[in-house]
Structures are given as structure tokens and as C-alpha cells.
Design goal:
Chain A: InterPro entries: ORC3 (IPR020795), ORC3_ins (IPR045663), ORC3_N (IPR045667), ORC_WH_C (IPR040855). Chain A: Belongs to the ORC3 family. Chain A: One of its GO terms (molecular function) is DNA replication origin binding. The complex is a heterodimer. Chain A is of the alpha/beta class. Helix content of chain A is about 60%, strand content about 5%. In chain B, strands 2-3-4-1-5 form a five-stranded parallel sheet, sandwiched between helices. Helix content of chain B is about 50%, strand content about 10%. Chain B has three domains: about 50-195, 3-Layer(aba) Sandwich (Rossmann fold); about 200-315, no CATH class; about 320-450, no CATH class. The chains are: A alpha/beta, B alpha/beta.
Chain lengths: ~650, ~450
């Protein structure tokens, strides 16, 4: 909170803004979490079913299962290429497993298991530790085993086996009161031991093979189960494991939702809804989308981006106090200070609004604070109405156009949304072609999509939409009577009134965050550019007045490395070290501003020499130069440009 | 046929020191391995006699090595320790298991942290002086080929453990690899070699027929095995796998019987029924394209529905972010094009250079046959910037995509992890894969490949 208030624009209402921001963020986060849980539910449920089934078939001792080579049941879970996002899925998976199937779940990551020894150790540790956290009564006993384990240093699966037997025996003979902790468990005697490999691709194949071989030796005594987290495609299993090993596994495939679909749902529920007052403008949206599509496919990062935008918005825009629920916003309007009202008057959209008013009204707006407040209330209500109408109409337009050949207005709602955010959609060329195509559509198809539009508009509670709905229904009726031509104007006109870009709305600055450059700078780190910026204009980072210079020059007082960097920019591909040193010494002694007598020069030279060498080696470390064998006392530049 | 062999155990398992009855039981448990077992028995000699210090048994997977040893030692109640070398991630574990099964856990706990071989020998001697061996002790080491990767002194020491500990102990090494591949170049004690040949078709038939379904007659099951072997023998001789397959497909085989269409003796009809099914099994479940569980479910489903189930290798499609695709394409180009030709492909005004100008003598062969070549990061990025159509800022996320491609095993890092300066990579994806990727981004990769010029 302190950080938020510090350096915040318009500090007087920063506390309210901070609170609003927090509330909104919590709500967004909670909603997305619920959403993601729902999305994952299907696959997690089938996984849970799989584990249950595996543990129950194990008990059947019919002829066929006795005969079969003992296979380890394995679930291959395909999760898409963004590995960091998987953590959450695995987290909830192991929680669910612990709740409903088995207390024995261990998940391992590739980077902690370089060798078989480590993998084994991790698995044992996790399995025996989870027990401690799950069951308090067992704590003493497990502590004992862990100390034993510690004493005997090496751990093997047979230790685990003994531990498991002891554990299941105990729960068998244990009092019934103990079992109440896990009443859902199908059979408390033989809960499976689940080992989750979070990132299969990154595991050393040799380690994995050996581990599976070992496990298969114990599978009769220990009901083991694997879950492989796969990022690329299931055929990696076959690439990693030879037939002799994969024949020990009984693999079943589980495919999760693709990340683009995932994002589409998140956008649908988070962005394309009037529920949250905070909005992103077209450019910011574009930046976030391109990061997702071009760089990482990570829904989590997308939401982080939204969070950043949210924070920035509340931080930098004093009027963001009005970016909240309707009632609160109206209240906050009344409490606006004179200073805030002044800033409203400076808003671009507000000035546009003022220009349209009568001269008398204009004067009133500029002079009278209370009048302005009333107008603001009205404007905010208008903005809310606009949002309420915007999204349903957007969806309608999308249902109409998304089935057209070659998708003139995009396949996804988000693409249409971006188009609408940019400018008046009906001025767009693609929009015209879409409408032409729409006219050529077969009648039954058109009716079907119109029907869907009706369904979308139905739940919306606003007067205009009610009216549009009635019109649409009439239209549908007409269509059914083959009376097509007369009603075209209606369809094409409907979006005009509702899909105008938000920039045209007065007071849009309150809700819309528009600084795409900030978001880009924060999310799309460019290490090279920042290093160069730091070296060429140290003032930018150090904020030291003495470093402030005009463009393109470096102050003499700059750090050594900056001076060396600046000088090296003036050289060609090969740099003579001695010349460089000379130039450096000149600059530095000019900075000290004294022309010392001759015997002092030598001494200073030595210090300068050392400083110069340090600067040069720092530059080498940063990758700007490297030593070369072409000429002995030269170094080679690794970058272009400069002088 | 079975009865004949078992009827005269004395002729093969001839051993005067054990009771007839026990030998009979042993022989029953290991059909078709009587010769090897008899050989082993005579090598072992009388329980109290010193036996040969080390025996090396080799044979393919599932040729009954462990089984024979296990049955012999167990049925004849000889003191033994069985250790699997895969499991022994450290020698300490090996030592502990041996001591544990010979002298109990007290002895095992005497081992210091990270014990050396001499620690083991010391404790062994100390323990066996307290409880000297009345019978020969056996240490069976499964998957002994892994011993080659352990400390150089371990294998030679184990081979003459009898001398070292001055006890009546015999090491039996079981391996799938011949002894010639083991012999250390410093020389060592030569163990006795014993080969377990593969089972012949008749023997497989005999062994598999033994585990018949309790509710069907032996003849019926044996005819089933006959059909099964007819299909699978040409591709698979692994007893374990065959047994697995037999169990999986038996219910299908019995299906017409249960429906009452066919009698048990009508082998031809049964064969007609099961043969296409087994052929299908060979393509799917045998290759583990489809798991055995899914296979069983498929059997219960109708024929046409089961076609929907796709094998593991059918899923090869990978979704990647836009720039990752281009990075991968650039990596592929860098791996399969010689660096000299980059100028020709990526410079705008390269002039007309024909392929023959580039050809060097040793480069007649296709680069695709030679496999991917390593390339430095700089080259990857240079190609990346020239193939990607719009301007891309060199942001951190581009670099992190490279490393995430490495974790996805689509690229492999050739240089050592610690080398931060100019790392080298190789592209690890196939031609088909990269073609599919470049199609999604409208990039004609074939035009840029030197091999297809």
C-alpha cells in the first residue's frame, strides 16, 4: 500500500483507489480461479476415475489379471507447451487425489532428479512426508522412519514397501474412528501410491527407464501408479522409453483443453462482460494477445498482464476512483475535489463533449463544480449503459459473421472485439464484405444464426436491448415468410448505435486503461535495450543530476564503464586497446578538472589504468567486445552501430 | 509330451544329495530348462562343499534365468541373496542387501556411511567368523550388465569374493549380454559361463499351455496357444509378452463358445474367428499403442466403434506459439543447411549461385541422412530474423522460448550447460514435423533447404 501511495498521481484519494484496485483484483482472481477449476474439472475427473478404477481392478484376482504381465497403470496427461502453467493443474490434481483416492501422492520435477538416486530420494521423501501433513496421529511413527531413513542414508523401494505395509496394516487394525479422515476412499486397505512426473520431456530417459524397471519389480507388493505430464505429444513416451520398458506400463491418454480455447473462455468471462468496470483499450489488448499468441501460450501470464494493467490504471489515473460499481461511483463523484474536477475538464473525451454543448452550458461546466458533478453522474450512467449494450450486440454480430467463409471479421469473438475497439466497425472494409456475404447466405442458416442472436439478447435487461430484441423477433418472423429484402436495413443498422468504439464515449478514461507502451515495457523485457540505455545514458537509471546531459553525449562524471562504452562506439570493428586507454584517460582527467604536475601524472595513470581495465572486462562480460587473435593488442567489437 | 519329461526327472536332474521328491517339484516348476538346471546342480555340488567362486549365466530376456535360479535356491532351501543391479543406485545398497539376507539386520547396520568394498569385506569376514557357512551361500545378481558401469574394482572383486572373505560363497551373475563384453581390460578371474538358449516354438507352446484357464480344458487352451503362436511367433519370442497377449485375447477366443455357436473341438472355426483379431492386436496392443486396459474395453465394444480409438503415436500434433514455430524452423534450417549456404538463402541479392558451385567432394550425401548438425545461437537468431516476416524486438521472451524448446526436447543443447557464452544447439525434430509446423505459418520450408534445391 505504501508503494502504491508513494509516487502516485493525485495522492489525496489514493487510499480509496488502492482499496478499489484490491477489491477488483480479488474478484477477478477468484473468478478466474473458479473458471480454471471448471475447465480442468473434466479432465481431472476422468483422471480420478482412472486412478480409482486402477486401484479397484488390482484387487480382482481373476485368471486374466493373474496371467497378465504386471503392468503399472499410467496416465499420460497432455497439457500443452506452456510448462509453467501446469503447476496449478498438478497442484489441484494432487489435492483432489489426496482428498478422494489416496493419501500417498508424490510429484517430482525433472530438475530435482538428475540421477536415479535423487529421483528415488525425492519420491520417498514426498511420500513419507505427505503422511505427516495428512495424518497428525502418524507423526511420531513417520518421524521414526524418517530418522531411520536418514541413518541408513541410501533409500530403496523396499524401504517404501515396508513402510507402506506397516501403514496399511495399521489402518486395517486401527480404530474405526481413525478412518473418518478419509471416508470417500473406496478401500482403505490398499490405496494406490501415485507418483506424478510433472515434466516428462525434461527427465533423463535413462533415469526414467531405470526407475520404471525398479518399480515394476515391486508392483506386486506396492500398488504403484504413474501420471506423466506431457507438454508436446504422447509420442514422446515412445521416443523416450524402449519397448522393453514401455511394455511394463499400461498407458492411458488424457488430453486437456488447448490453451487457445482456454484463453477464449477466460476472455469471454473476464473481458467481454459488463461485470467488471475496469476495461482495456484496443492497443493494450493487442499487446497482451500478441504476447500470448506469439510468445508463450500462457493463460497465467495473460491474467498477470491484466493485473498489471489494472494496477497501473489505478496508480496513474486519479479519476480511477470512479472505476467501480455504479452506486459507489456515483457516491465518489460527489466527493471529488476541485483538483479532480479540473482534471476531468482536461480529459479529451470530456472536452469533445463540452464542445457539443450550448455556450451557456459550456460556461456552466467550466465554472460550476456542483453542476459538473451532476453531469458526471449522468455521464457515468451513460457509460454503464453503453457497456451493457455493447457486449450483447458484439456477440450477436459475432454469431452472424463467424460462420461466413474466410472469416472476414475473425473466427473468435476477441478478434471482432479488437476491431470494434479500434474504430467504427461499420466503416471497416471487412465489415462490408461480411454483410455482403451475409446477404448471400442460405435462408435456413441465416434464420438459425438469428435465432441464436435472439437467445443472446434475451437475458439482457436494458430498454434498448429489449427493443432490439423485439425488432429482431419481428425480423425473424418476416424471414420465415420469405420477405427478405425489406428488412436488411435493420440488421446492418443495429450495430451502429451500440458498437461505436469506447474512445467516442465521454469519460472513457475512467474505465479504460490505454498505456500499451507501459504494458509492453513491463511484460516484454528487452535486456539488450536496457543495457544499452544504461550505458549510453546513465542518468536514466541513476537519476544523478550531475549525469544529466544533452542527447548523445556522456558526461565526464559518468561511471567508467559508460565512458569506455561511449568511446568504443566510435571505433571500427577492431579496437586498439592503447588508443582506447589514451582516450579514456583524457576524458577522465578532464573530469577531475586538474592538470597535476608531472610526477603526479604517473601515479594517477596507474589508478586510471586499473579502472580502465576493469571497465573493459565488464564490457567483455556484457558481450560487447571479445579478445581477438587477429591483432595482438586489439579487441573485436561484437555489436554494430555507434559513431 | 509334458509328462514324459517330468516322468524321468532323475535322468536329467540327477543329484544324489537332494531328495527325489524335491527335485521332481523343482523340475515341474521349470519346464524346458531341465538341462540347464541339471548343469547348475552339478556345479553347485553338495551343499557343504565349496562351490566354484563365480558363475556367469547369459541368455535373452525372458529365457528363464532368474526363474530357474529362484526356484532352485528356494526349493532346495539354500542360503542365498538375490540382488537386482538396477535397484542398487549405490554400491552401499548392494552391500546392505547381501549382508541383510545372510546375517540379518544387525550386520547390515554395521556398514558405515558410503561404505567401500573393503568395508564390506571386513564386515562380511567378521560376521562369517561368528556364523560360518555350513552350506554354500549364493549371491544372485540380476541384470549384471549394469556392474560394468560401477567402480572398476567391484566386478573383479565380486568374481573372487570367495577368496576375499574366505567363506563358502558363490556369485551368480545373470545377464543378457555375453561375458566378452564384461571382461575388464586389467584382467580378472574368469567365471564359469553358462548359456540359456531361447525357447523354441515347441517349448513356448508347452510353457504357455501350462497356465490354462481353470474353467476350460487343457486341450482347448493349448489349441488357443497354438493359434496365438502362429500369429505372433514371427515377431515376438518373449515369453512374458506372449503370456500377456494370451491373457488379453483369450476372452475373445472364447466368445463364440460362450454364445454356443462353436464347440470346443471345432478349431478351424475358432481360428477363423480369432485370427483377424490377433492381427489387429499385433499392430496395436503389442506395440503398446493402445494400453491393455483400453484393449479389453475395445473387445467389449462393437467393431466399428473401436476404430475411433487412436494409438499413442497418432498424436503427433504440437501446438506452439507463433515465434516458437519460427525459432524451430530456423533451428531446423541451421541444423540441416551448411553454414556456407546461408548467404544464398537469406541474402536478398545473392546473385545466381547454382548448387554445383557449393558442392564439395564429401558433401554428395544428403544432409538429412547425416542427421542434424550443431549450430551456435548467433546463427539461429540470424536465420530467425530473416525468416520471420515482421520486425521482432530481441526481447527476453524470445530467448526464453529457446530454452523452453530445449526443455520440450525439440531442440537439444549440445554444449555444456555451464557454458553461457555462445551455446550450441541441435534441432531434434523430424522433417514431417517441421513441414507440418511451417505449413501452419505459411512458410515454404522446402524452398530453403539445401538438400532439396
Amino acid at each position: 500500500e505504501d508503494h502504491f501511495t508513494n509516487g502516485c498521481e493525485g495522492a489525496d484519494n489514493s487510499e480509496i483507489r488502492f482499496k478499489l484496485c484490491q477489491d477488483l483484483w480479488h474478484k477477478i482472481r477468484a473468478d478466474t480461479e473458479v473458471l480454471q477449476d471448471e475447465l480442468n474439472r473434466k479432465i481431472l475427473d476422468s483422471l480420478l476415475d482412472f486412478t480409482r478404477k486402477c486401484s479397484s481392478t488390482r484387487q480382482h484376482s481373476d485368471w486374466a489379471s493373474q496371467m497378465r504381465a504386471s503392468e503399472i497403470p499410467t496416465a499420460a496427461l497432455v497439457l500443452g507447451v506452456n510448462v509453467p502453467d501446469h503447476d496449478m493443474t498438478f497442484q489441484s490434481l494432487s489435492e483432489l487425489l489426496q482428498q478422494s483416492v489416496t493419501p500417498h501422492v508424490a510429484s517430482v520435477q525433472a530438475k530435482e532428479c538428475g540421477a536415479l538416486k535423487h529421483l528415488m530420494k525425492r519420491v520417498l521423501e514426498r511420500l513419507m512426508d505427505t503422511v505427516v501433513t495428512v495424518d497428525d496421529e502418524e507423526e511420531e511413527e513417520t518421524e521414526q522412519t524418517s530418522t531411520q531413513l536418514h541413518k541408513s542414508v541410501h533409500c530403496s523401494l523396499s524401504t517404501l514397501c515396508d513402510w507402506y505395509n506397516a501403514k496399511t496394516m495399521k489402518s486395517k487394525t486401527g480404530t474405526p474412528g481413525k478412518k473418518r479422515s478419509s471416508p470417500v476412499r473406496d478401500d482403505p486397505q490398499q490405496p494406490p501410491v501415485v507418483i506424478i512426473f510433472k515434466d516428462l520431456e525434461a527427465f533423463n530417459p535413462k533415469v526414467l527407464q531405470d526407475f520404471i524397471l525398479i518399480c515394476s519389480r515391486y508392483v506386486e507388493r506396492l500398488p504403484l501408479m504413474f501420471i506423466f505430464g506431457i507438454a508436446t505429444s504422447p509420442s514422446t513416451i515412445q521416443h523416450m522409453l524402449p519397448h522393453s520398458v514401455s511394455s511394463l506400463l499400461c498407458i492411458e491418454l488424457f488430453q486437456s483443453l488447448s490453451c487457445t480455447q482456454h484463453l477464449a473462455t477466460v476472455i469471454d468471462k473476464l473481458i467481454l462482460t459488463p461485470q467488471f468496470p475496469f476495461k482495456l483499450n484496443g492497443k493494450v489488448m493487442q499487446v497482451l494477445m500478441s504476447i500470448f499468441l506469439y510468445h508463450d501460450f500462457s493463460v497465467r501470464n495473460f491474467i498477470k498482464g491484466v493485473q498489471l494493467a489494472l494496477l497501473e490504471h489505478f496508480h496513474s489515473q486519479p479519476l480511477s476512483v470512479l472505476c467501480c460499481k455504479k452506486k459507489e461511483a456515483l457516491l465518489n463523484v460527489m466527493q471529488l475535489s476541485h483538483h479532480d474536477l479540473e482534471s476531468i475538464r482536461h480529459l479529451l473525451s470530456f472536452r469533445r463533449y463540452v464542445e457539443k454543448q450550448e455556450p451557456q452550458e459550456q460556461l456552466n461546466l467550466f465554472r460550476d463544480d456542483t453542476h459538473l458533478k451532476e453531469v458526471c453522474q449522468k455521464l457515468i450512467k451513460d457509460l454503464r449503459k453503453y457497456h451493457k449494450n455493447y457486449y450483447p450486440v458484439l456477440r450477436c454480430l459475432h454469431t452472424l459473421t463467424s460462420s461466413l467463409p474466410r472469416y472476414p471479421l475473425g473466427k473468435q469473438v476477441r478478434e471482432l472485439h479488437l476491431i470494434c475497439l479500434e474504430k467504427n466497425v461499420w466503416e471497416n472494409e471487412d465489415y462490408q464484405t461480411a454483410m455482403k456475404l451475409l446477404k448471400m447466405l442460405a435462408k435456413d442458416e441465416l434464420i438459425a444464426s438469428l435465432q441464436r442472436c435472439v437467445e443472446i439478447l434475451q437475458p439482457v435487461k436494458s430498454k434498448k436491448m429489449k427493443k432490439a430484441l423485439v425488432e429482431l423477433e419481428e425480423l425473424l418472423a418476416k424471414f420465415k415468410q420469405l420477405d427478405i429484402n425489406s428488412s436488411w436495413a435493420n440488421i446492418t443498422l443495429a450495430p451502429r448505435s451500440h458498437l461505436s468504439p469506447p474512445e467516442s464515449q465521454t469519460l472513457n478514461e475512467v474505465c479504460y486503461y490505454s498505456s500499451s507502451a507501459t504494458v509492453r515495457r513491463h511484460l516484454n523485457a528487452t535486456p539488450r535495450t536496457s543495457i544499452q540505455a544504461a550505458l549510453s545514458s546513465p542518468y536514466y537509471y541513476l537519476q544523478n543530476e550531475s549525469l544529466k546531459t544533452e542527447d548523445g553525449t556522456v558526461s565526464n562524471a559518468a561511471p567508467d564503464i559508460c565512458i569506455a562504452y561511449k568511446l568504443h562506439l566510435e571505433c571500427g570493428r577492431l579496437i586498439n586497446l592503447y588508443d582506447w586507454l589514451e582516450a579514456y584517460a583524457t576524458v577522465v582527467s578532464a573530469a577531475e578538472g586538474n592538470n597535476p604536475d608531472s610526477d603526479n601524472v604517473r601515479k594517477v595513470e596507474e589508478v586510471k589504468h586499473a579502472r580502465f581495465i576493469q571497465a573493459v572486462s565488464e564490457l567483455e562480460f556484457l558481450g560487447f567486445i571479445k579478445s581477438t587473435k587477429q591483432k595482438t593488442d586489439h579487441v573485436a567489437r561484437l555489436t554494430w552501430g555507434g559513431c | 509330451m509334458v509328462v514324459v519329461v517330468l516322468g524321468a526327472p532323475g535322468t536329467i536332474l540327477r543329484s544324489v544329495w537332494y531328495e527325489e521328491e524335491r527335485l521332481l517339484r523343482v523340475a515341474q516348476q521349470m519346464p524346458c530348462r531341465e538341462v540347464q538346471a541339471g548343469m547348475l546342480l552339478s556345479l553347485m555340488g553338495q551343499p557343504q562343499q565349496y562351490s566354484y567362486p563365480s558363475i556367469f549365466i547369459y541368455g535373452h530376456r525372458a529365457s528363464g534365468k532368474s526363474h530357474v535360479m529362484h526356484v532352485l535356491l528356494k526349493e532346495l532351501e539354500l542360503p542365498h541373496a538375490t540382488v537386482s543391479c538396477v535397484e542398487c543406485v549405490s554400491v552401499a545398497l548392494l552391500f546392505e542387501q547381501v549382508l541383510l539376507s545372510f546375517f540379518g539386520c544387525d550386520a547390515a547396520s554395521l556398514l558405515p556411511r558410503s561404505p567401500s568394498l573393503s568395508d564390506f569385506v571386513r564386515i562380511y569376514r567378521q560376521q562369517c567368523s561368528q556364523s560360518p557357512a555350513k552350506q554354500t551361500r549364493y549371491i544372485v545378481m540380476e541384470k549384471a550388465e549394469l556392474l560394468r558401469d560401477t567402480d572398476a574394482n567391484l566386478l573383479p572383486a565380486l568374481l573372487r569374493l570367495q577368496e576375499l572373505v574366505e567363506d563358502n560363497v558363490t556369485i551368480i551373475l545373470l545377464s543378457e549380454i555375453v561375458w566378452d563384453k564384461f571382461r575388464p581390460n586389467t584382467g580378472c578371474f574368469e567365471p564359469l559361463l553358462l548359456h540359456f538358449p531361447d525357447y523354441s516354438k515347441g517349448e513356448l507352446q508347452q510353457i504357455l499351455s501350462q497356465d490354462r484357464h481353470p474353467s476350460y480344458t487343457a486341450e482347448f487352451y493349448s489349441s488357443y496357444i497354438n493359434i496365438l503362436l502362429g500369429v505372433f511367433y514371427s515377431v515376438c519370442r518373449d515369453l512374458r509378452e506372449l503370456r500377456h497377449l494370451a491373457a488379453l485375447n483369450f476372452s475373445k477366443f472364447c466368445e463364440p463358445l460362450a454364445e454356443g455357436k462353436v464347440k470346443e473341438t471345432d478349431t478351424h472355426k475358432l481360428w477363423r474367428n480369432i485370427e483377424p483379431h490377433l492381427k489387429k492386436a499385433m499392430q496395436t496392443v503389442y506395440l503398446r499403442e493402445v494400453s491393455s486396459l483400453q484393449w479389453e474395453q475395445m473387445q467389449q465394444m462393437e467393431e466399428k466403434e473401436s476404430g475411433a480409438l487412436r494409438g499413442l503415436s497418432a498424436h503427433t500434433h504440437v501446438e506452439l506459439p507463433y515465434y516458437s514455430k519460427f525459432l524451430l524452423i530456423a533451428a531446423y534450417l541451421a541444423s540441416y543447411n551448411p553454414a556456407r549456404t546461408d548467404k544464398r538463402f537469406f541474402l536478398k541479392h545473392h546473385g545466381k549461385i547454382k548448387k554445383t558451385n557449393f558442392l564439395k567432394k564429401n558433401e554428395k550425401t544428403s544432409n538429412h541422412l547425416l542427421g542434424p548438425k550443431p549450430f551456435p545461437l548467433d546463427r539461429l537468431l540470424a536465420i530467425f530474423y530473416s525468416v520471420v516476416d515482421n520486425r521482432v524486438a530481441p526481447t527476453a521472451s524470445i530467448f526464453s522460448q529457446i530454452s523452453s524448446l530445449v526443455t520440450l526436447q525439440l531442440l537439444t543443447q549440445v554444449s555444456h550447460d555451464d557454458q553461457l557464452d555462445a551455446p550450441k544447439y541441435k534441432c531434434a525434430v523430424s522433417m514431417d514435423f517441421i513441414c507440418a509446423i511451417s505449413r501452419t505459418v505459411n512458410f515454404d520450408i522446402v524452398k530453403y533447404l539445401y538438400d532439396f534445391l
